[in-house]
């Protein structure tokens, strides 16, 4: 008896090269609008000035985070965490309602792939020309076009890396370093690292990033249900497929003429007619392509369209499908997002742009001084997180007759921290021997709403 032959199972199969066809339509226009808006924000924000400084700057060296009129310090990291949580829940809500619309229109991977693909189309030509160019042997034309394409990609990638670093290093300093070519080691590293990532992801990996590297693509299906808006193919209307020339002879043929335009324009290279697939990023390029074909053969649009599974199976109208948006999952996401946003902006509005830490000088215990007074020395670290300079009045409560000997009026410039040595004296008879609780109060002279209190200990020697 012959032994069965061993079967080789490949754990990874090399994907075919994808050459997306250029497409025009409503969603293509919307996608390019998102490209323009996101890139104007990304490339433009570092150049925007606010009160004589960069409007958005995460200055790691100075440990200050500037967000327009808001100045955050490391102690305020909770606010940055809150912003990330709001973005995450907002993304969950959008996914539950409209599927992967974020991936298809505003995700950085999609946006830069669109930019790089546009450059490729302008230099190498349309889809058929790019396929022909890649298959032909190397010659002067191929070398020239490939070199021009990669040079253009490199310029965009380097400018993207430079802009990314400008969010962490002041742009003016970065421009001066660029002119004199005197970047620091970390700035050089991050500019080229981010440029390399942009160049590789948008130029070469493209759909592979969405398929294999993006963690969001792996768990987003848990937020889908039968009423989530996704790209769908209306099989009841489209099947059975038949080429346009054979439809007259086959009266039972559906509206799909099997032109494969929906496949040719897909950046992931999938056939949406096979049903919803995890590779689909919801960019709706297939919708534009199919609608243009339907217009040419004088058939109604919407053979491929945005719809929900319930709407497709039950034949619901757009109005009926819209009523199912407000379902428990969406309401829970909306409620949680509303609570988080309310708490975030509430605490931000009530936040006092003044902080004070009190440290008693351990090298100088309580001591007796002139006029039968007991003196303790403290170190005050005062942080003015606002952008305006303020003068503050310092006083001490908790012990009878306690007073600040010097530095009872303190001026702190905007967005700075100032350390102040303070001497506090009390009458000899005040308080008990050992430690006594006191409280420092700091109040703005020009703005009494700026007020902070901090507890401390006053030592009376035995």
Task: Please describe what this structure looks like.
The protein has 462 residues and is an alpha+beta fold. It has 2 domains: 15-351, no CATH class; 354-460, Sandwich (Immunoglobulin-like). It has helices at residues 26-44, 77-98, 101-105, 108-124, 127-135, 140-165, 171-180, 185-205, 207-213, 216-219, 235-238, 261-264, 285-296, 309-314, 318-323, 328-350, and strands at 49-50, 53-54, 56-59, 64-67, 70-72, 230-233, 304-307, 354-360, 367-369, 373-384, 390-397, 403-404, 409-412, 416-427, 434-444, 451-460. The radius of gyration is 33 Å and the shape is elongated. The model has no long low-confidence stretch (mean pLDDT 89). Keywords: 4Fe-4S, Electron transport, Iron, Iron-sulfur, Membrane, Metal-binding, Transmembrane, Transmembrane helix, Transport.
Helix-strand layout with pairing:
Layout: H1 26-44, E1 49-50, E2 53-54, E3 56-59, E4 64-67, E5 70-72, H2 77-98, H3 101-105, H4 108-124, H5 127-135, H6 140-165, H7 171-180, H8 185-205, H9 207-213, H10 216-219, E6 230-233, H11 235-238, H12 261-264, H13 285-296, E7 304-307, H14 309-314, H15 318-323, H16 328-350, E8 354-360, E9 367-369, E10 373-384, E11 390-397, E12 403-404, E13 409-412, E14 416-427, E15 434-444, E16 451-460
Antiparallel strand pairs: 1-2, 3-4, 4-5, 6-7, 8-10, 9-10, 10-14, 11-13, 11-15, 12-14, 15-16
């Amino acid at each position: 008896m012959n032994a069965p032959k061993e079967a080789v199972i490949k754990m990874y199969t090399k994907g075919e090269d994808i050459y997306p066809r250029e497409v025009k339509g409503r969603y293509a226009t919307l996608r390019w609008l998102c490209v323009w808006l996101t890139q104007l924000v990304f490339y433009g924000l570092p150049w925007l000035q606010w009160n004589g400084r960069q409007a958005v700057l995460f200055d790691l060296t100075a440990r200050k985070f500037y967000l327009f009129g808001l100045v955050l310090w490391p102690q305020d990291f909770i606010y940055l965490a809150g912003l990330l949580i709001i973005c995450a829940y907002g993304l969950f809500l959008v996914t539950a309602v409209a599927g992967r619309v974020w991936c298809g229109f505003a995700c950085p991977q999609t946006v830069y792939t669109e930019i790089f693909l546009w450059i490729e189309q302008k230099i190498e030509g349309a889809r058929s020309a790019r396929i022909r160019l890649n298959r032909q042997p190397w010659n002067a034309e191929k070398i020239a076009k490939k070199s021009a394409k990669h040079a253009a990609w490199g310029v965009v990638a380097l400018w993207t890396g430079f802009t990314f670093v400008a969010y962490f290093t002041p742009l003016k300093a970065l421009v001066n370093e660029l002119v004199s070519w005197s970047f620091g080691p970390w700035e050089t590293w991050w500019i080229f690292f981010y440029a390399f990532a942009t160049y590789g992801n948008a130029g070469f990996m493209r759909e592979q990033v969405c398929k294999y590297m993006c963690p969001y693509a792996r768990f987003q299906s848990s937020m889908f249900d039968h009423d989530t808006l996704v790209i769908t193919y209306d099989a009841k209307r489209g099947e059975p497929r038949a080429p346009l020339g054979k439809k007259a002879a086959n009266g039972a043929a559906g509206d799909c003429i099997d032109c494969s335009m929906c496949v040719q324009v897909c950046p992931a290279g999938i056939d949406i007619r096979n049903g919803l697939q995890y590779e689909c990023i919801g960019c709706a390029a297939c919708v534009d392509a199919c609608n243009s074909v339907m217009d040419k053969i004088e058939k109604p649009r919407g053979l491929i369209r945005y719809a929900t599974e319930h709407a497709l199976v039950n034949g619901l109208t757009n109005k009926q499908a819209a009523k199912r948006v407000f379902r428990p999952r969406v309401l829970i996401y909306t409620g949680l997002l509303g609570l988080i946003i309310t708490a975030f902006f509430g605490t931000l509005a009530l936040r006092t742009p003044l902080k004070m830490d009190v440290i008693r000088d351990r090298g100088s215990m309580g001591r007796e001084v002139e006029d039968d007074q007991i003196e303790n020395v403290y170190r005050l670290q005062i942080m003015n997180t606002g952008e305006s300079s303020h003068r503050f009045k310092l006083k001490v409560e908790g012990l009878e007759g306690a007073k600040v000997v010097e530095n009872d009026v303190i001026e702190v410039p905007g967005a700075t921290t100032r350390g102040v040595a303070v001497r506090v004296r009390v009458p000899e008879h005040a308080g008990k021997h050992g430690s006594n609780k006191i409280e420092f109060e700091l109040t703005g002279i020009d703005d009494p709403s700026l007020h902070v209190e901090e507890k401390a200990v006053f030592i009376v020697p035995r």
